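Structure tokens please, single chain.
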Amino acid sequence: MLVITGASGVGKSSVSAAVAATLEQSVHLRVDDFMFSVVGGWIDPWLPEAAQQNDAIGRAVVAAAMQFIAAGYTAVVDGTIFPDAIDELAPACREQHVVLHYAVLHCPFAVARERAANRDGASRQPDSAATLHARLEDLAAYERPAIDASAPPDDVAMAVTTAFTSGALKV
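Here you go.
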């Protein structure tokens, strides 16, 4: 399982799709697709009261990834996934004999904000974008998997693929 994360606008989805396309048997699972599956009772995910919803979405993504992995696929998961979630996911992966890899895409906030605005208009929660970007800047133990996402997505995907296949992103 390869988890690709970062703040809005760093290129998670573009990079993840490109990485998955380079692998022989792979799936690209977007956390956003699972999030927007919630129709009734939706709570904006940045709100504290969304914790249960966010946990359920995360568990659904992992369950789907594990089913694909059991069938021989490499699961490339993209979404805003913080290190504390990786700390919870790593033991579960080890228990299932699944190798977990984690890449964090970084670029300057101004670049990410411009990309997000060009992609889908105004951010759904502009103040949370800066907070999210800052939260993914100080990774401590997870600084090793940080990859500069300032370049075009295909170049970033090549860097992620190289790091992944070499084992450099292994948790």
